[in-house]
Amino acid sequence: MTNSKLFKRYGELCATHPWEVIVAVLTLTTIFLTVDHHQPLISTKSKNCPGCFDEQVNAADVIVMTIIRCLAILYTYYQFRNLQKLGSKFVLGFAGLFTVFSSFVFTSTVMKFLHIELVDLKDALFFFLLLIDLSKAATLAQFALTASNQEEICQQIARGISLLGPSLTLDTIVETLVIGVGTLSGVPRLERVSYFACFSVIVNYVIFMTFYPSFLSLILELTRITNVYEQKHTIISRMLIEEKDKANPAVQRVKLIMSIGLLLVHILSRWSFSAGDITSDFIKKENCSETSSFYSFIMKQFVMSADHIVILILLVTLMIKFIFFESRDFFQEKVATVNAINNQVSSIPEEFTHLKQREKYESCCSSTYNFNEVNDVEEQDSCRNLEVCLQLFRSENEPAALTDKEIMLLVDTKHIPSYNLEKALNDVDRGVLVRRKILAKSIGFSKLQNLPYQNYDYNAVLGNCCENVVGYVPIPLGIAGPLKVDGELFHIPMATTEGCLVASTNRGCRAVDHCGIKSSIVADGMTRGPVVRFPSMTKASEMIRWLQNSNNFETLKTQFDSTSRFAKLSKISTRIAGRYVFIRFVAETGDAMGMNMLSKGTEQALHHLHDYFPDMDILSLSGNYCTDKKSSSVNWIEGRGKSVVCEAIVPAETVQSVLKCNTHALVDLNLSKNMIGSAIAGSIGGFNAHAANIVTAIFIATGQDPAQNISSSNCLTIMEPWGTDGKDLYISCTMPSIEIGTIGGGTVLPAQSACLEILGVKGPNLEQPGENAKKLARIICAAVLVGELSLMAALATGHLVKSHLKYNRSNSEKKKNSCD
Description:
The chain has 820 residues and is α+β, with helices and mostly antiparallel strands. Helices cover 59% and strands 10% of the residues.
């Protein structure tokens, strides 16, 4: 743990001071390159004479170097195949650039410092390929690329160094000691290359721990390229699993013991030799003339020996297999399908060539194709058996190690409930994606292709707003206004699919632009109405009389108010039906809509009431006397939630110029339609033109419960002639039961929260609890008023049908009508 913290602080230092670290590394490199040695430390020059070249390339050399070359090519091929699965050219680019730079620094420095000629590096290059570890460079790049800002970049790089640093340090020590054994082999070429490889391991470690993290931090800061991965949580989880395995204490102890043993081998093997002896072993050759023609030297470098031929055949075979077969088989079917359906795929940036990155980009470009089918094809062969999947899921508790296909297998076998996927996977986005795939198996992919699911904050939804989520349904959002309410201007967000609604409301806002609207909250109290039952009517009547006592009410109020900081019981009313009693609790709930508060408080009060009346049966916490989400006279008469009244006096010239009407026509229509017509229909709370239209549109936009528009749309619209000549228009709207809140429920969702922010009522009012909810209620009532004004004017002048034909018809219908 201490080592990890030390490496983390070191990584944070490199990431936060990139320029200083890079300059220091370059300076040290320059110093090494400019150092002048009078006596070379290791000389690899051989004396050229007839037969010397052939004698150097003996059978042992050929066998050893051929094995090294083959292993180097195979290992490099394996690393690049693994990196390709990550799917990002950014990772490959960073890792490759790191490798090239470290190779350059090492080669240049060692060639200068040890006076090694270029001819001696042809075999060392293969050894270098065998030693490099692209996976660690890619891993650190992944940590950096999952950040979203510069501070997070530094933190992610530091986190990566803390995970990779300890194991990399120990690996470097072990590799150096193991390769150092090669210097004792007695094979000249292997000894020279082993010295080269030892320096390679050390230099790569230094560059990785200094230059590379600083380089990542600097590049990402300059280019601002972050958040490349769609599934960054999953990728990081997989990397952490791998690093956890690498940091196994038992493996670390084995490496330490092996390091100590190898160190003893080196000490004992070199005890009798001085540094000069070691150097002389490398430069001791047969005495022969150093004269050799330039032509002879060149020809020796291009001699095709048997080991060269083997290497060439192996390399060409791998290239042909990788380029012409595997890549074609993997992508041919998918690319053909994509091109046939949507031509926009050809314009996808190079960074998104992996199918999962393509899927994200494609969803932004077009809504006509979904890559779920392609992903399903990709995973169909990657499903392990049920026992293995269960073991991975239960023992390691790391669902990131399982493919989507394997997760679906666990759902099908009832080991993971479908409704609990987000929690089981610890990844809400992946949970939604897997559930979509499960649904698609039943109903078909084509039915889901136009249902979006990406780029949405499902964390806010989980446990709050919806279950079994498979996507979201976008609803157009319009803005009406500005609307002047109590001297303050508001822009009204309205989410609706009904044409003309926003435009009509906006016209009403213009009609009251100069006069404005006055509003008032006349009552505030959410309700909950449980039903209880007694053995007899006598007992029921006794309980009602008990509640009418003010002291008893205060007793219940104390119990009720103890369940919340904001819920304050204000009233209790009762109705009796035989031996049944319906109790209506009324309480203020601050800025919340308050149903949960009322439920908790009511339950506590009922339990306390049961202590006084033990023969009382509590049948239901809600007995429909509330009344919630149902039309009822009790809400119309007594109110529920916020009871609001708004009024405005519209000048005659405005009625004429903006509404294209006159006061007399509006008053007459309001009487005949909203009063007499609603009475004939036996309406409850429906003495208005279309209050529910505006209420529902604002409810959806601001995250309210749309079902509560039933009571919330209760509205009485009154119109009267005003002024000395009666040409001005007085209009008022009385809405006794607006059930809204600015916290909780759908108000936590990002888009809905933004709409509340537009109105200036987001969240709780810390200074005056409840004021934000009351303000929203006043805005809704005022918006209903201007909506009533505009629609009634359209009806009075006969413009309603014309406007709907113009604005509320599809393009195809318009073209058809124009042809007719």
